[in-house]
Inverse folding.
């Protein structure tokens, strides 16, 4: 079946030194040849670059370099062309108009990658990793996305599916000999395989917390009473004057979010309004937002003035904020102005909150005291999330498919234990196979595909 030819600008919006327009489809070379003044592209070899001009009739639009890729050794496995032009948005638009006039059509979001998937060039998890690679903003997320692009997740899942498929075939064979009451699938061996698959699925699922931290960054909420030094700390960590610093309590009334990269990991720092009871309606909203951010944070940095004589209000605040899954670092601030002993505070906080694992630091954001230790605490949290799993799950869809796969595998285990009929056992096994296949795209539907590729940029 003839595949129509799509085209789109593949480079980022805006003016640049160069821009690239991509074409893919059976007539990609022929359409480009109609508007290209230079070599006859119909006669050139694959993976070659050619100098010339893009023309609209007799009018030259731009001086370009055209790269020809002939099927099947292309990203989409179709004939493909890349036109490199001077990076004016106007020129790019003019070239697109000429291509559309000569038989191409505009590509939809992610359509090039979707064609690569539909044509068997990549699987669905690899397609998603391309989007992750484009969106990567730190070294850790880049490495994970690149590993998935190389087929890391699919390799792990395909081994499990192949072993399980062998048992499905044997169980299906038993259905053909139902009247003879024969058993081709060794139930003991099947149980052992199911246990192995269950362990692997659990390990992959557990890696999602770490993968999500790498991909989206770790949310770090900076909280404390007014004038505890939250904005000063944010500015010091960012090494810029991002937040207004004032001796007036309640200066910060809304949340301020900025990203910082430490040792290749991204941390989303959230400076919040000071926590206190207030009658000011605007400040009250800021306090509520601060608590909401804390509820969604992975790490809480709670600041306490080292010169405080009464920390009962701080302890009450901490009790309302602490969670078992929340990494908490309590920082005694303004140590440049105060030398008060804080150990008694530490013991009191541990005793009254019932949390013995709380971390404590004495810092001075103004004098850069112990800020490296604070950064080390942040990176240590990311390291603590690591699992022994070679492949790290970063995609929410993969995570949900793995959870459904685990439930299906447990259902098969129950079916074997309860010695249910072969028909029902075959049904549960097929469910498990289908959920495992959702990750690579062996089992999927148009709605899921549309949702995945709609998030891609046009031209990719």
């Amino acid at each position: 079946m003839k595949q129509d030819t799509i085209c789109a600008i593949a480079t980022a919006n805006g003016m640049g030194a160069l821009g690239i327009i991509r074409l893919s489809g059976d007539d990609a070379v022929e359409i480009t040849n109609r508007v290209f003044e230079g070599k006859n592209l119909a006669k050139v070899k694959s993976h070659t670059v050619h100098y010339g001009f893009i023309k609209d009739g007799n009018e030259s639009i731009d001086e370009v370099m055209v790269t020809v890729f002939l099927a099947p050794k292309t990203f989409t496995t179709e004939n493909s062309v890349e036109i490199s032009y001077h990076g004016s948005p106007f020129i790019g638009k003019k070239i697109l108009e000429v291509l559309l006039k000569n038989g191409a059509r505009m590509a939809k979001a992610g359509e090039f990658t979707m064609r690569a998937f539909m044509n068997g060039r990549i699987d669905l998890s690899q397609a998603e990793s391309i989007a992750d690679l484009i969106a990567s903003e730190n070294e850790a997320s880049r490495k994970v996305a690149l590993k998935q692009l190389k087929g890391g997740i699919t390799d792990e899942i395909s081994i499990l599916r192949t072993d399980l498929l062998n048992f499905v075939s044997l169980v299906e064979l038993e259905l053909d000999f139902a009247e003879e009451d024969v058993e081709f699938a060794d139930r003991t061996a099947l149980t052992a395989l199911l246990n192995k698959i269950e362990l692997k699925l659990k390990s992959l699922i557990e890696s999602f917390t770490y993968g999500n931290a790498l991909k989206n960054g770790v949310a770090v909420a900076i909280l404390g009473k007014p004038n505890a030094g939250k904005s000063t700390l944010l500015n010091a960590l960012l090494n810029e004057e991002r937040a207004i610093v004032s001796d007036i309590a309640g200066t910060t009334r809304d949340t301020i979010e900025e990203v910082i990269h430490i040792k290749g990991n991204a941390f989303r720092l959230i400076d919040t309004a000071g926590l206190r009871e207030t009658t000011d309606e605007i400040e009250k909203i800021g306090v509520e937002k601060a608590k909401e951010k804390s509820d969604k944070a992975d790490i809480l940095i709670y600041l306490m003035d080292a010169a405080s004589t009464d920390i009962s209000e701080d302890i009450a605040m901490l009790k309302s904020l602490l969670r078992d899954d929340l990494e908490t670092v309590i920082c005694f601030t303004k140590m440049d102005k105060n030398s008060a002993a804080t150990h008694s505070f530490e013991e009191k906080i541990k005793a009254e909150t019932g949390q013995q694992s709380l971390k404590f630091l004495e810092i001075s954001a103004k004098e850069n005291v112990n800020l490296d230790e604070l950064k080390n605490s942040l990176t240590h949290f990311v390291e603590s999330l690591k699992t022994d799993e070679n492949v790290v799950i970063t995609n929410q869809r993969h995570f949900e498919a793995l959870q459904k796969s685990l439930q299906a595998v447990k259902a098969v285990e129950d079916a074997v234990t309860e010695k249910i009929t072969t028909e029902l056992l075959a049904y549960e096994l097929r469910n498990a196979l289908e959920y495992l296949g959702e990750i690579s795209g062996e089992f999927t539907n148009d709605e899921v595909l549309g949702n995945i590729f709609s998030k891609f940029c046009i031209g990719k």
